[in-house]
Amino acid sequence: MKNVLVTGGAGFIGSNFVRYLLKAEPQVKIVNLDALTYAGSLENLQDLPNPSRHIFVRGDICDSKLVDRLMREHAIDTVVHFAAESHVDRSILGPAPFIRTNLVGTFTLLEVARRVWGTQRIGVRFHHVSTDEVFGSLMPTDPPFRESTPYAPRSPYAASKAGSDHLVRAYFHTYGLPVTITNCSNNYGPYQFPEKLIPLMILNALQGKPLPVYGDGRQIRDWVYVEDHCEAIHLVLREGRPGETYNVGGGNQLSNIELVQKICALLDELRPLAPSHPGTAPAKYASLITHVADRPGHDRRYAMDISKIRAELGWSPRHDIESGLRATVEWYLSHLDWVAKISQAKDFQAWLNANYSNR
Ligand code: NAD
Ligand code: TYD
């Protein structure tokens, strides 16, 4: 791994990965290709360690000529593909960009990699970053998803990611392109765009706004701290077997309502509210929790079986939900300037109105 093309490296996980890789691989040069949609921002790439080994290029992964030029000019030997439309709720209100970026974009990258690398098999790698949502929804007592679990996506987002995974695998079997895939559960941590559950709840709470829990709030997600995910991807790049898929998860299965209550308790401790009446106990953030109409087709539960990556590569998550959530809440509280800039992003306020005002 010498010259790495990271796609979507100005988004949440991508920017965390760029930081991680610059530290973990002292010789590597990174070309970061990102279209800077509403979800991407150069604010996520401030104060990088070793910034001289990072080149940012604003551009679209569907732009085949641009991707071709970057791969040749920078002698790219490794592609780590994060770029995507990533928010389920947005995919429900408007699926078209998901089909374009997640399917056509992934196809474009695969085609260019096939063309530029030709029959080269050694020393090159195309790594595709995917999600547990491709496997569909679990009932409370079902066993967790394994790599062999049949795909059963249920949202336009999940379907577009499932399609992209199939394409990546097809390029391995048909053309021998050395690919790997990671399917990861819900990430959380620094630099997550505030449309997603955890930052949305932190920021709404700080503004005294309602905390909108969809439906009964008993849907379960398996939360993984973003740095642990980055470490897993790095290990797969170095030691994962071409053609293989690895499940990544945090081992933290929580219902949404439990998670929101934990966030409220942390805020009560770290940023206590004033008492609602003089001489009484401080008000509690949990009083802001509001149940709103459920997400259509809302997946009930995700959970990952990570025994393959643990056995083959020795990876397991370093953060439990207690330490990861505390670090996350503290990060948002100490980065309110970042929050202010990011919240001005293009259509964010319009998005909040569209998704929440009539719920
Ligand atoms: P994100 O929405 O925060 O960032 C996506 C980035 O991709 C943004 O910087 C955006 O500008 C860029 N982008 C979008 N369309 C583009 C295009 N056409 N060309 C170039 N760049 C484009 O997403 P994220 O949460 O960081 O997720 C990154 C990847 O990880 C995605 O592929 C997602 O499916 C996957 N994933 C996410 C999670 C999660 O919990 N967030 C879990 C598992 C897998
Ligand atoms: P999200 O962060 O959008 O991730 P995903 O849908 O990919 O799992 O949502 C996590 C969970 O939180 C999901 O079950 C939907 C729920 N949720 C709410 O209850 N309220 C909200 O405002 C949001 C954004 C999500």
Q: Can you offer a commentary on this structure?
A:
This protein has twelve helices and 13 strands. It is an alpha/beta fold. The protein has a domain at 3-192 and 224-250 and 298-319: NAD(P)-binding Rossmann-like Domain (Rossmann fold), CATH 3.40.50.720. A seven-stranded parallel sheet has the order 3-2-1-4-5-6-11, sandwiched between helices. Helix 4 (96-117) packs parallel to helix 5 (156-175) and helix 6 (197-206) packs across helix 8 (256-270). The longest helix has 22 residues, at 96-117. It is globular. The mean pLDDT is 96. The protein binds nicotinamide-adenine-dinucleotide and thymidine-5'-diphosphate. Residues 88, 186, 196-197, 200, 212-214, 219, 221, 256, 295 line the site of thymidine-5'-diphosphate (TYD).
Brief digest:
The protein is α/β, with parallel strands linked by helices and 359 residues long.
Which terms summarize this structure?
binds thymidine-5'-diphosphate; 359 residues; two-stranded parallel ribbon; alpha/beta; globular; seven-stranded parallel β-sheet; Rossmann fold; binds nicotinamide-adenine-dinucleotide; 12 helices
Number of strands: 13
CATH class descriptor of the domain at 3-192 and 224-250 and 298-319: Alpha Beta
Gross morphology is globular
Report, as a whole number of angstroms, the end-to-end distance: 48 Å
**Percent of residues in beta strands:** 15-25%
Helix content: 40-55%
Structural class computed from helices and strand pairing: alpha/beta
CATH architectural arrangement of the domain at 3-192 and 224-250 and 298-319: 3-Layer(aba) Sandwich
Order of helices and strands: EHEEHEHHEHEEHEEEHEEHEHHHH
Please give the radius of gyration in angstroms: 20 Å
The mean pLDDT is 96
Could you describe the largest sheet, including whether it forms a barrel? 7 strands, parallel
Task: Tell me the strand order in the biggest sheet.
Answer: 3-2-1-4-5-6-11
- CATH superfamily of the domain at 3-192 and 224-250 and 298-319, please? NAD(P)-binding Rossmann-like Domain
Ligand names: nicotinamide-adenine-dinucleotide, thymidine-5'-diphosphate
CATH topology of the domain at 3-192 and 224-250 and 298-319: Rossmann fold
